[in-house]
Amino acid sequence: MRRANRGKAAWDVAIRGPGGAMALAAAVGVILAINATDAFATPAQEVLRASPGKTGSEDRAADRLNILLFTADDLHDESVGAFGGRPEGLTPRLDRFARQGMRFDRAHVNAAICAPSRAVIATGLYSHRSGAMGFFKARAGTPDIVTTFQRAGYLAGILGKVGHSTPTDSMRWDYEFDQKDLGNGRNPEIYHQRSRTFLERCRKEGKPFYFMVNSHDPHRPYCNPERLTAGAAMPSRIYKPSEVAVPGFLPDLPGVREELSQYLNSARRLDDTFGRVLDALEESGFARSTLVVFLSDNGIAVPFAKCNTWFHSTRTPLLVRWPGVVEAGSENRGDFVSGVDLFPTFLEAAGVVGPESLDGRSFVPLLRGKTQTGRDHVFTQIDKKAGGDAVPMRCVQSRRYGYIYSPFSDGRHVYRNNNEGLCMKAMQEAARSDPAVAARIALFRYRVPEELYDLEKDPDCLKNLIDSPEHRKAIDALRARLHAWMEATADPMLEAFLNRSDRAAVDAAMRNAYGAPAADAPRGKKRQQETKAKAARD
Q: What is the mean pLDDT of the chain?
C-alpha cells in the first residue's frame, strides 16, 4: 500500500498559489454613501445616526467595521432571483440586496451538510483539518471566529442554528437565541425583534459586532399552509405546484412538484426573514458600517443535492454588500470562493489579526474589484452524515469539470439520507415503469467510485464521463489536483484514493478514519432512538 507524503510544499502548490498570502491590512469602518438604485438608508435613518445626545460609546460603536453573516438553511442555488431564480419574484428582498452589492457565480460551501458546513465557516479549516467531519465538535484547541473577534473587542451574537454553528467547546456567544425562541426558526418578526435588541446592546456598549443570523428556512419540514408549524409565520406568498420550476437533476413528476411548491413557501419566508433582519440593521443606524454576507449552508434538501458533492449540492448564492467598498450591482463570474474563505476575509476586512494556519484565503481583493490568482478550482467533501453513517466523498471542481471520488461506493453499501421526502417517493413510484428514473435511483443508492461531469454542458450532473477516452486528460489533471490537496491537508481518505483499485485497502482506510461501519457497530435501543431523533431534526 502506498503511503502519503503530506508535505507543506504540496500545500503551497495546491492551495495557496502565486500571490495567495493572506493580507491583514486594516480596513477601517466605512460610512461612505453607496451610489445605487436601491439606496438602503432612508433620510430618517441618517438623522437617527447623526442625532445629538448619543454617548461617546455609541459613537465608537460605529467607528469600526461590523459583520453580519446571514445564512439560509438548505436553499437551492437557483432559487434566488439574482441567480436566475425560478419562479420569478420568489426572493424580492434578496434581489434588492443583490443590486446593492456583489454576486459571486462560482461560490460553494465545502461540505454540503449543515453542521460541518458551518464548522468550516467558523474555523476556516476543512472538515478533516478541524475534526468536525459530521455532527460532532472540532478538536480541542481549534481556533474559531467568535473567540478571535471577541478578543479584538467585538460582541458576538447569533440567532438560530446555535449548536451547528458552535463547533468548538470553547466558543461562547455574547448573545444567542435558538430555534424555539425564534418561532421555530421561521418567524420573520421575531428575528427582527431579536436583531434590534442585539444591535441596541452593541450601540450602548460601544462595541462593533460579529452577528450570525441563521434562518431555519427552507429546511424541512417545508411550509404547508394547511398545517403550519407551531410558532412559524405564514410566508408573504404561497405557491402552487403549477408554479414550480423543477430542477434539472429531478424528474418532473406530480409528487415532486407538490413537495417543491411547499419548499417555495419556505424559501419565500426565508426572504421575508432576511428582509426583516436588514430592516433592523437599518433602523439601528449601523447599515453603512456593516459588511453583510448572505449564503446558504448547502443545497436544497432533495435527492441529488444536499449531503452530496454534485454541483448543486455545494453551489451557494453568495451575495456581499460592503458600503463604499463593493460596487453596487457588481458580479464576479470567474473566481471560485468558498465557505473556508469567509473567516480570513472577515479578518482582513475588519483589520483583525487572527490565526495564521487557516486553510481559506481572504477574497477582499475581489470585493475591491481587483484580481486574485489561484481561484480556478474548489474542493468539497462529505464524511459522516446524520445518523453517523460514513459516506466519504471528495470532489474538485474547475470552471469546466467536476470530478468526484466516493470511496464508500462498493456496490453493496446503500446510501440513504433524511432529505428524500415526497420527491424520492414519487421517483420510486415512477421507477416501476420508467427505466430512466430507476437508473437514477440506483445511482443515488449505490454510486460509482469515480464520476466526471462537464459542468458547462451538464451542471445537473446527469452524464458521467469517467469512462470517456476523450476526457482522459481532464480526468488525469483533476485526479492529480485532488491528490495534491488530499496530501497537503492530511486527508484521512488519501490512502483510499491512492489505492482506489484495491477494495480491501479502501475498506481499511475507511475503518481507520471513521471506525466500524454503522451497520457493524453495536447499538442499543436508546442509541437508535437518539440517532433517529437527530436525523429528524437535521
A: 88
Pairing mode, strands 209-214 and 401-405: unpaired
Cα torsion angle, 171, 175, 181, 182, sign: negative
Q: How far apart are CA 158 and CA 165, in angstroms?
A: 9
Q: 86 pLDDT band (50/70/90 cuts)?
A: confident
Running DSSP on this structure, what letter comes out for residue 413? P
SS3 of 305-354: CCCCCCHHHHECCEEEECCCCCCCCEEECCCCEEHHHHHHHHHHHHCCCC
List pLDDT tens digits, range 7-17: 333 333 343 33
Name the DSSP class of 433: T
> Could you tell me how far CA 193 lies from the centroid of its own chain?
25
Cell of 164: 451547528
**Beta strand pairing status for 175-177 and 377-384?**
unpaired
Query: Which among 514, 502, 511 has a CA at the least distance from the CA of 449?
Result: 502
Distinct helix (H) and strand (E) counts, the chain: 18, 14
> Which cell is 257 given?
412538484
Residue 175: φ, ψ to 5°: -150, 125
Query: Can you tell me whether residue 215 is helix, strand or coil?
Result: coil
Task: Say if CB 273 and CB 191 are below 8 A apart.
Answer: yes
Per-residue pLDDT tens over the stretch 203-259:
999 999 999 999 999 999 999 999 999 999 999 999 999 999 999 999 999 999 999
pTM here is 0.87
How is residue 34 written as a grid cell? 453607496
What is the pLDDT at residue 210? 99
Q: Which of 64, 498, 474, 125 is nearest to 288 (CA)?
A: 64
User: Using CA atoms, how far apart are residues 45 and 61, in angstroms rounded to an integer?
Assistant: 16
Question: What does DSSP say about strands 401-405 and 450-454: parallel, antiparallel, or unpaired?
Answer: antiparallel
Per-residue cell: 512? 481507520
Chain segment 490-499, per-residue pLDDT in tens: 999 999 999 9
As a whole number of angstroms, the distance between CA 433 and CA 449 comes to 28
Neighbours of 196 (CB within 10 A): 17
* Structural element, H or E, at residue 155: strand 155-159
For 285, residues 6+ apart whose C-beta sits below 8 A from its C-beta are 45, 48, 49, 62, 203
For 101, 133, 186, 402, 421, the CA distances from 377, given in Å and listed in that order, are: 23, 22, 35, 9, 32
Alpha helix (H) ranges present in 25-113? 43-50, 56-61, 92-98
Sign for the pseudo-dihedral over CA of 313, 319, 325, 328:
positive
Residue 170 Rama label (left phi>0; alpha psi -120 to 50; beta): alpha
CA distance 267 to 508: 42
**Cis omega (within 30 of 0) on the bond before 218?**
yes
